[in-house]
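User: My collaborator and I are trying to settle a disagreement about how two of our proteins should look. Neither of us wants to argue from intuition anymore, so we agreed to look at predicted structures for both before our next call. Could you fold the first one, then the second, and keep them clearly separated?

Assistant: That sounds like a sensible way to settle it. I'll keep them separate. The first protein:
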Amino acid sequence: MAIELEDVSFTYLPDTPYERQALKGIRLTIAEGSITALAGHTGSGKSTLLQHIGGLIHPDSGRVCIDGTDLAAHTKQEKRAALAARRKVGLVFQYAEHQLFEESVYEDIAFGPRNFGLAETEVAARVREAMARVHLDFEAYRDRSPFQLSGGQMRRVALAGVLALHPAYLVLDEPTAGLDPRGRRELLALIRELHAAEGTTIVFVSHNMEDVFAIADEVVVLRQGEILLQGAPTAVFAERERIAAAGLRQPALMQLMTALRAAGVPLDEADAGLRTPADAAAAIARALKGKEGSGHAQ
């Protein structure tokens, strides 16, 4: 099962002076159980692509399929199937706290399950479960106004509201935008945890290459509405010139490891692909210790 985009093209404001083609013949399969990052400069088409996956907009040509079902529907039967497919996708917008609107954390998270027509006992169970998944204590936060929480906590509430719908696919638009460093680290750790615990398929848009490098299994780089690069993070970011052509840069950690190796630190070539500061620090320490030992031996 997967998300499939088949020759998807989309134009904003067609046949007007403001016409702009945002996507051009996109062919992409997002495998079940993966964490896929959509990266690109402003205007590259990444958020438009995400909105197609979420079923918010439909392509001018081509198809977007969730587990084999086309999200664009015409007949009654197709519309029922498309609605069921769209419900498999949980979409969290950029600045997700703007999705919040109820008077309490509980009511905000409960809104979606209630809208699905679930019994109140099931709604309550889902709210409690979703809050636990995002590490918000039920008793401490259930009656609090979401607008009195920190930015990171508000984003957790918004994420819980989507998780309460039990989506098969979690789609995130710039999940760490606007967060302070601590909030960013905590949210990235939470995304990794959700994926590791349940194998949730996650698709996220980001302009932050540190975030992409840290958690993605697959990176799709877009440029002017087309896929420029696709593959594992280390392989994609090794393409420095092509990455630069997309208005992006290598992650700082990868730049550091490459520079140290060029300066004579005896790091393995594979060390350039280490994706956490802790792993990189350990590799550097081993290399320097080995170099020091070689020096004494001479």
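The second protein, kept apart from the first:
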Amino acid sequence: MEFLLLIASIILTGLYLWLRRPDPNLPPFPKRPLPLVGNLFHLADDSRPLFKRWRKQFGDIFSLNMGGTLVVVLNGFDVMKEAFVKKADAFSDRTPVFFDAATGIPEKGVAFSSGPEWKEQRSVALTILRKFGMGKNILVDKIQDVVSAYVDYLASQKGQPTDIRTMTNISTCNVICAIIIGHKFEFNDKEFQKLIAHLNSTALDQKNVSLINYISWLKYLPGDLFFAKKITLNVQVVLSLLKKFVAANRRTVVDFNDAGNFIEAYLAERNKKVQAGVSTYMDDENLLKTIHELFGAGTETTSTTIIWCVLYMINYPEMQEKVYAEIMEEVGSSRLPNMQDKTKLPYLNAVIMETQRLASIVPLSLLHLCSENVTLKGYTIPKGTWIIPNLDSVLHDKAIWGKDAMSFKPERFLDSTGKVQDREELIPFGIGRRVCLGEALANMELFLFLSNMFQRFQFLPKDKTPPSCNVYRFGLTCAPYPFEVRILPRKQQE
């Protein structure tokens, strides 16, 4: 009897909330929420076209009810700049999500923490990353070492049709390894292969677990319909490997300036604060979560961008030839391109920027949490509202990029003299205080990988008709479906 009363009360509460009119000061709801589940079943696996249509109908800000949670979707550059830059104090916190909870140490690190703890962890992480590079020779040398091994692999394929995805993923992960633990792995190292496999599996399954962010009890259903158990297992395996890395780099005495990798530098800075009696959130849990985030985000996003760029170049061979001609003119073939060449290769830079824009590999940024009642563009956003930044709405906005916004056109990033024209609307890494921690590192990797690739090789489609640039699979990132390319050494073309 008590159980029936409970069920009845839940149903009646759901009906009441469904029949009640929403606050007129809230952003509009494109679809009337259903009882209990809200708008969850109105969304497809890929919400990009749906959000685009709703933006056109309802404006740059609209609301969703996701299992009882108020979610507001922000579209357009002006709206995002006002929220995440001008009103950053109200829009910079994070929501609790399943992926973070699966680590067993939620709200730690940089990506999923908030408040003073997040500010300290981000500041420390940026300081360490700047120490190891962001343009300095020490990091460039580490990346070049990985790139050299990567292009040797490409050369070994001898023009046979090859899917470069796996080796690209391995190589970008090795760059992160070089920074985090101070050395790279051999491609056939068993622990390294295990790390890659579990990182990749987690990335592919992200979309399946998203419903649990809003209806947490779904993870307790029999079986593993939403991949919660699989993702938890993958995350725990990765964390166990990272714990070994931390243990191997824990020296008794180490000065920050003498640290040889990220782990040593973090531990040195923590010990310095503890010894000085300075209050700090720095501990093993925050270290573990931060390096986990660097591995997860730094590997998948960079490798996926490289794959997209190759796909665009085999679809636009005249652009690939223009990139090659520029490299030959400014660098030649007797040495490898380096970061000092970046300003000399504006067309390559424009190709990379256009790839980031059009591929839009992370169309929806991580969820934000509104930490106070705030007004945005005339709408009331209540405290506790979850915020979805729709980066896609900026990167593909015809009002910004022109009527040909969905065409691949590197020239949009060049001025009348052929120099690179930076555009503040290019926000593939996000905007405001929560912009991706590894943005500078990713841009260095993209330039060094792609400049070396296009210097050494011509990339051709496996068949006469290249794979389409307009289809993709949606996981942690929007990635092209697997495809093969023929990789011909440029010396065969001369």
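Some points you might bring to the call about the second protein. Confidence is low (pLDDT under 50) at residues 14-19. The first strand starts at residue 61 and ends at 66.
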